[in-house]
Amino acid sequence: MKLSRVTPFTLLAASCQAAYVQFQDCADAVTNKSLIPESFRAGVEQGRDGFEWRFDVIAGQADRNACEIDVGDVIPRFTVIDYGSDIKELSGEIVNMSCYTSEWLGPRAHFTIASSFKRSAFLDTFRTTLEITTKDNESLSCIRAILTPAAQEPTRLLSLWLPIATFVLTCIAACWPAQQTTKSLTTKNGRIVRAIDLLAYIQFIFFSGALSLRYPGFFQPLVGLCSWSTLMLPAGLVETNSPYPRAGVKDGIYEHNGTITGAPGLELLTQMTGSPVKPQSWMNTFVLSLIIFFFLYLSSYISFRLSIRKPKPKLTVSTLGAQLKDRYWTVVRLFLSCFMLPISAWATYQFLDDQIFGYRNSAMAIFILIVLLAGFWWSWTRDSEMGSLVIQSPGRLNKNPESGRQYYALVLFSLMFLRGSVIGGLQTYTSVQLGILLGCELVQLLAMTLWTRFACFISLTGLLSVSRLALFALHIGFVPGLASHSGRMLVAYIILCWHVIVLTCVFLLPALLDMAHLMMYGRAVTLSDAERGTSVREVPRPIQRDQTDIEELQKSEPIKNGDANRFTRASPSDFNQLLLEMILKREANNPQIGPISQKALSEFLKEVGGKEKKADIEKTPEVFSDSSSTLVDSRCSKEEIKPMPDTLVDDLVAHLFSEENSAIRSTPLHNTLNRPINEYFISSSHNTYLRGRQVAARSKLKGYIATLSQGCRSVEVDCWDGRDGQPIVKHGYSLTTSISFRSVIETINNYAFFASDLPLWLSLEVHCGPSQRDIMARTMLEVFRSSLVVEPLNGSSQKLPSPNQLRGKILLKVKVAQNPEPLQESLAPEYLHLDGPQEDLERGDCQDLPGDLLQSLAVYGASRRLPKDAEFDTHRNFIYSVSERNFKKHTKDHRSLELAGTQHLVRVYPDPNRVDSSNFDPLQCWRHGVQMAALNCQTEDFCMSLNQAMFHGSLGYVVKASPQPTQIRLQVDVLMARGLKVSTGNEPVYVKMKLLVPDTSNQKRRTTTMLVQGPDVAFDENLEMSVETNYPHLTFLQWSVKTMSNGRTMPISSGIAKIDNLKEGYRVLPLGEPLNNEGRLLCKISI
């Protein structure tokens, strides 16, 4: 192993001075006098009238000593095809001849031939034929070559240093110490992503410039005779044991002027070591890759340790292991983002000699590919943020569920690997190579559009993807025979100019602006400033509070640091005293803690705390005199107690943060259950049997168990013909597994009323034939028995029955024909032995049931599609099913469904294109009176949280309310968060409140950003919101604690509740998902 072969690419580039040469032997026949060329080199210098060319030819003779040839009898002639003019016949002069003897090859003659001819165009390329003859015109040798002159010195310097300087500046800007503010954290992460995107773009420049469509060659810097590789590093190495002999290219080497290895700079830049066909190169690559990975690992860990402010946590073996494991994901993302494409290209390049097994290089290539894929798959399956370092956070991607970001990363890295494999493995199939690479860029752009919508086109990653797609499309012009030489040169100039524009405008200028800004305003405000006495009250509050999360962070003030010790480093007792000061500041004229009477404490709990009058502590002193709470000593007089010791303060704060003091009511107000069932919103589920995505997933009974256990009152059963004659449940045409219909019905029967005894709807999607439809009906009659509604209830002919009347009952929703015959009022008693033994049904007592038995069981749930012309049946009730998309069409421009005054129900289900089981916004459905907004309950997203808040404590049924113009004024004093789970110290956090209304824009407010080092943080800030709406019963409050991670605003924990379910006073808002927090947010709520 020779690690000395690894040379900085800048040194190699600086030594490039001459032209690139490809040649082949064009002699018709070989005689004993023929000179067989073995090496052909070229150099060029600009003269007065043209260009002076110098050619070095090494040749040998078969069965003769090449050194015995008479130089005076040798005449070199050139036939030069200048692509900008006619063919020219030129003569040359042998200025020197030497001889050397090789131990293995024998004597060899070295000719130095000089010639001169003009060059017609900048960066033009010449095809020349050198014929060496005797004075008698006897041919001694024929060499056909492609000559690419080196660019002018300014051009070469510009092409060399523009990418290097840009990359260095972006790296410096990315590593510049950032201010400890949310704004600086956002911009710093953006600068890191820019540096990585620049490295990827430089790789793209050189790999696309190395695509040779005239001759095969991954390391050949010719593309359509002109490329950035030709400009910056005009070098190439073609050896006799490489794949080039297949195309007739025997040997051509760039005159490298004494560099250490002679390896091309392209290879050094993109793949770190020397030529891939060198015996030691694979070991060099493996060792150097490990060194780079270890260096990144060490740098990441040191940076992480330095970011933790004093006092640093005690370092133990367990904490060290956890920290190193946490850093691993970041390092893997960074390493794969930068090196997956070149390493995969290099690895697949080894397979071009048709000898895969049995060689050390090939074995190492296979090993590297396995390590790359295994490392990526392991990281991707364990880290949902995989790929975040190469995603420029287009806005809508952050709003997608975690699975969306993860699958986008999978597509991104898979395309990296595919590009590298195609570049390295399809050298002799260049047209196919170009087509696949063009397809890769198109797939990436489509994937970005799918996950981020059209917002991707205004992001850095989107712009670069469009640029790569356009440039690869231009490369089609280099396909042989497709365009003339002048056309190919024009395309080459367009590509070069495009690269310059992208490097300058997208990377260099922003990097220069970043550097100027950092040097002028880069003095960071850290915790040390706080220790020198900076005051919290000297910092201005945020002005704009109705922007998106990123805009809010960018426009907010520096993080409060003045009272850092008081607000973030205090002990629990200090926090309790601080909280009491906040309360007294709001409620008492004299905010000093002193003696508190029982009466004063009772009044606080009743009026300020929002307690009901019956909770008067004077009348029920035992409430706070048990062993777990000593707010009031029962032995003290009622008039006055002693000054509160610390323990009493702690108990008061414990009570305020307790679950009993929750701001959310356990049961909704005014939720009567005696109105017709069509006047209720019903908690509904879609494709209940699925526990994951909508395609290639498993159908499980656990889906019904989990959904029913959460109080859902409408579940879906998709029924299909089973091969054994028994119906099955599955998602049709989507590669999902199936479960038996009977097992589903038995599971539903066992858990139907586990969480609620209100009526349960079974939404049956029946795709079965008549025989298995009949089996379905008989199965449900047998299993559900008396719970199944098989006839209308007495006294409910004019109106639908109420949930109270249907307690403990199961109702079926079954699709019927558009013009069905009137269903029987009831089934004859002789056919239904619901209270008899099960053997009656099993013996076939139902075999003579009239008509379609399954449809006859849909007593209140006959289902139809929503009519387009709004012509609803007025004779009986139906449940109209409509997709999310069609529902939006019906309600476009705020049109209503025109169901007022009818007894119909409407069920809206997600669009089929939601293959990831995402959910639609149910709020708009409820606004238009939709009773059943069926959601994918297996997906814990915002829409599902909204649904859970809607039906919280209601047992699955919420009564509708008529629209009524109402002005809602909400004031939330955010006091303190407790129990936050933060991963590292000094995290910037803030609280955001959002008022969700269905008929107007949402109102948003947020607190000042605070640095938090532990589970508790105090905010002490008042947030006020006011909105006018016609749907006060459909207004929700969402609260969330957020921080910054990888350049994105990330929620730490959040919650949501209906406004009319909130209690007033000093209450705690629960903090749960998305990071499985179990913290609480203490606020004073006034509505």
Comma- or semicolon-separated keywords:
Immunoglobulin-like, alpha+beta, 5-stranded antiparallel β-sheet, 27 helices, 34% helix, 1087 residues, disordered N terminus
How would you characterize the overall build of this protein?
The chain has 1087 residues and is α+β, with helices and mostly antiparallel strands. The protein folds into five domains: 18-149, Immunoglobulin-like (Sandwich); 154-518, no CATH class; 570-584 and 598-656, no CATH class; 677-959, TIM Barrel (Alpha-Beta Barrel); 966-1086, C2 domain (Immunoglobulin-like), CATH 2.60.40. Strands 15-14-13-16-17-18-19-20-21-12-22 form an eleven-stranded mixed sheet. Strands 1-9-8-4-5 form a five-stranded antiparallel sheet, with no helix packed on it. Strands 24, 25, 26, 28 and 29 form a five-stranded antiparallel sheet that branches. α3 (182-209) crosses α15 and α11 (430-452) runs antiparallel to α12 (460-474). 42% of the residues are buried.
In short:
The protein is of the alpha+beta class and 1087 residues long.
**Major sheet, described briefly?**
11 strands, mixed
Q: How many beta-strand segments?
A: 31
> How many helices does DSSP assign?
27
Strand order in the sheet with the most strands: 15-14-13-16-17-18-19-20-21-12-22
Transmembrane segments: 158-178, 198-215, 286-308, 328-349, 361-380, 407-426, 457-478, 490-513
Signal peptide: 1-18
Domain PI-PLC Y-box: 879-969
Keywords: Hydrolase, Lipid degradation, Lipid metabolism, Membrane, Signal, Transmembrane, Transmembrane helix
